[in-house]
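Please, structure for the following, as tokens.
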Amino acid sequence: MIIPKLHYISQGNSPKDHLENIQKACTSGAELVQLRLKNVPVCASGRSDKKLLKLAEEVREITAHFQTRLILNDSYKIAKTIKADGVHLEKTAVCPTIARAHLYTWQLIGGTANNLQDCESLIIKDVDYISLGAFKLKVNNPNLSRALGLKGYTAITDILKTETPIIGFGGITTEDVTAILETGISGIAVSEEITNNFNTIRIFNQLLKASSTEEQRYTFE
């Protein structure tokens, strides 16, 4: 299964915000969205799985209408229940091999990596794609791994030489796309840049498509 080159990671201060932003992303041409409820009450400790399921079902209706792929963050059981297109597992989530045993065979599994060792571990566990980052870091956030940047991406992809798609994430803007793709990264996951202006989806898609066209032209010559 081909993994879309652009992933929109949902943002919002409430479940309603996430719904509205996913609707806007789909309307603006997003091919894949990931429902990621970071710092939202419905996914806090002691959350109601029924509330999360209800929200996921509502998101599924939106993405199905637009024929947009839907990935759920961490919640692999709910992903199976609503027949989402897959699940993205953070480093603290369940092991991909365990999730794989529960999911339908056609559902995708992605995993988060911050370094070469993380990537190698995920490849062994047969994930469908890897999100590698952060490309950039926000200032004053000591809890995150160091930024990889273009040099980090190039070093890792040169060693891995894997057919598993690697998706860059972390503070990526439209100005970064061309250089990132030259490192061997397959695509990008974007949250804030898109949430601030959903028209950037069109720009991201154009930049990603231009790169694909150039690669094909080079291959066939």
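Residues 200-220 form the longest helix (21 residues). Residues 215-221 have pLDDT under 50 and may be disordered.
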